[in-house]
Design a protein that fits this description.
Blueprint (H helix, E strand, L loop, with lengths): L1 H31 L4 H12 L2 H12 L3 H26 L2 E2 L5 H21 L1 E2 L1 H21 L9 H4 L3 H33 L3 H26 L3 H26 L2 E2 L2 H24 L2 E2 L1 H19 L1
Length: about 300
Amino acid sequence: MLIDIGLVLLGLILLFVGGDALVRGAVALAVRLRMPPLLIGLTIVGFGTSMPELLVSVQAAFAGVPDIAVGNVVGSNTANILLILGLAMLIAPMPTRIAGLGRDLSVMLASAFALAAVAWAGIMSAPIGLAFFAALVAYLAYSAVTGRSTAPDLAPDAVASPVWKTLAIAGAGLAALIFGADFLVDGASRIARVIGLSDAVIGLTVVAVGTSLPELATSVASALRRQPEIAIGNMVGSNIFNILGILGITAMLSPIPIAAEIAAFDIPVMLVVSLGIAVLLLSLRRLPRVAGLALLVAYGWYCAVLLA
């Protein structure tokens, strides 16, 4: 048990150090590539911080525990909105007038509804996984083509930084996030099993939150650095990648049965939460701290229901 607690603490340290490094590198990269920070948040940051979810879901599918694979993705998407974005909003109110945000939110919602449709069938087959992954590739290609713009005036000193240094900072941050999440999930999962939690609950709570901690660390760092585009793009990009990329790749490798209880409760919760945040982002000029507090309270309720 002491070793597990040590792994959790080491994981937390790596996550927060890595999150800050990834944000600094991503902002500098946005300047270098002449891309808006939202696009960097959607791709490099959003997808990069979802690597722990990919590794966990693939391992869970091959280990014969599909409830963890699916619960990890559904729980992570819910946590990304209620817990992670909620905490970032509590730290600093976020402007929402971001070019291209409506398009990316539409893709996020379409992905969520596609998963709900598949869930009612009870299984995600390899062809469906391939279709999901193809949709992700098409979305990335479209975003890359349409997302370029003039260099944003975010970090003038970053222009003078060598490309290798920018990539090294971002890469080191991403590596720290991945290792930190691995340590944390390993330690937390062992502790949870000692307590006696089921695979589905572990996937929806401990593993989902654990693998979402890179997003948490990155979004908190973005909020502290007053980079709301990266925090919001991180959430949207991660949620898209979790469904289309992680479940798509996992299903191509091993078909994933979806438990009836996840399809009946957890996926509908994810849909409602996704719709709610989309409405807030598109209707308000700024996300206030009180909205962040409301999201955190909602996440507390969700966890209480799961653990009851």
